[in-house]
Amino acid sequence: MKLYPLFADLSGRPVLVVGGGVVGERKAAALLEAGARVTVGALDITPALHGWVDAGRVQWLRGSFEDAWLDDVWLVIAATSNSELHRHIAVLAEARRVFVNVVDDAEQSSFHVPAVIDRSPVTIAISSGGHAPMLARLLRERLEVAIDPVIGSVATLLAQMRQRIRARLPDVSLRRRFYERVLHGPVQSLLRRGQWALAEASTERLLDATEAAPTGSVVLLGAGPGDPGLLTLRGLRALNEADVILHDRLVSVEVLALARRDAERIEVAKQAGNHHTTQAQIHDLMREHAAAGRRVVRLKGGDPFVFGRGGEELEFLRSHGIPYEVVPGITAALACAAYAGVPLTHRDHAQSVRLVTAHCQNSVDTLDWPALAQERQTLAVYMGTSELPLIRQKLIDHGRAASTPFALVENGSRPEQRVVVGTLANLVEQAERHGVRSPALLIIGEVASLATTLSWFGSPPLGIIASTGPALASAAA
């Protein structure tokens, strides 16, 4: 079950709490803070509830639950110790289209009461779907420390200026830039010291400065191999500052989900034999959006400078005077090897690593095969799944032993990761047998045999590497 986040305006609206114990009291208190007209139905109530009844803040329906109590209420909370009564209330509420929360019973509830961080008028709510409320409370405790209490004052100041801000900055990207300057400028410090007038004046100056013609820019950002946890902090910040995101086909949905929700996303898919967006078109898109004053993120799988044509894109940006920066990403060789349990270097087996690309026969033919076939090194082959027969033949023809281990890592670092292992002799057959598809990284060298013993992520490797010599025997030990 996936819940739809919702902040309800209950001000002046009638709500019902069934149960007058400590839990009912706590629920009534939260509803009162939201300005609701609270009615508590119970045979008896706590002293605190008695006080609220006497003060006219809460209405008390004394007695056992009656179906008519649900008439005309917007929502109901069932907070008794009677599970049968709770089921009855849930059924009645469903029939009346009234939202119901049954305490400690997620299945009977049509809404859940979250753990709340109150920085009024800013409210942050955390829900576990009713299944792990203690986890939600622990997360709230962490965020309470991280979120400055002054945020509420900042929100109040901006609310007072909202109409002026919208009138002077009709463009959404300009407004976002203004709000970022407020949050990262001196305004918070002034409000923290209680200097409201100075904070308001500082905000006005930021508003004046933002009205000036904006300068667009481009960030070349490496998205890594797919696991969103591998995105750098600087990369996360860039995604949340972007007005436009030009992203590769292989950038994972989870990474894109980290971007600001209102950013324009444009897929510039490029894969072998199907370039529906050419490199020249990507250049034109970067120039077009930057010229319009937008902050563009060119989001590339892996790292922009490792077989990502990032250098070509920077040359284009520089030639057109477009400001740019580069945020590196974790390239596939590093991530796929690590998630497969394969050390790219090992003092007993590999003193060097070579990164090569083999996305087509032309690129394969330009490689220095005598050098690549040397022992005691690791080869990390990008985009090589369609050229496996040729890669095997070239390496063996130039002296690499047919018994050399390999590891094919498909969808490295993602939940669907698969690792297929074997030797050069059966590389093609193993890949065909297990239906290996792009994206997949090919690792060749003695270290690849360690995938069989050091794997830690996802399913165990598929296939077997036979121990045929001292080096392999040591690696597999």
Please give a structural write-up.
The protein is of the alpha/beta class and 477 residues long. The protein folds into four domains: 14-113, 3-Layer(aba) Sandwich (Rossmann fold), CATH 3.40.50.720; 151-210, no CATH class; 217-330, 3-Layer(aba) Sandwich (Cobalt-precorrin-4 Transmethylase, domain 1), CATH 3.40.1010; 333-476, 2-Layer Sandwich (Methyltransferase, Cobalt-precorrin-4 Transmethylase, Domain 2), CATH 3.30.950.10. 38% of the residues lie in helices and 18% in strands. It has helices spanning 22-33, 47-54, 83-96, 133-146, 151-160, 162-168, 172-184, 187-192, 196-210, 233-241, 253-256, 279-291, 310-319, 332-340, 361-365, 369-372, 388-397, 427-433, 451-454, 470-476, and strands at residues 14-18, 37-42, 58-62, 75-78, 99-102, 115-119, 122-126, 217-222, 244-247, 264-267, 295-300, 324-327, 353-357, 378-382, 405-410, 418-423, 440-444. The strands form four sheets. It has a five-stranded parallel beta sheet, sandwiched between helices. A five-stranded parallel beta sheet has the order 10-9-11-8-12, with helices on both faces. A five-stranded mixed beta sheet has the order 13-14-17-15-16, sandwiched between helices. Strand 1 (14-18), helix 1 and strand 2 form a beta-alpha-beta unit. The protein starts with 13 loop residues before the first strand and ends with a helix. Residues 468-477 have low confidence and may be disordered.
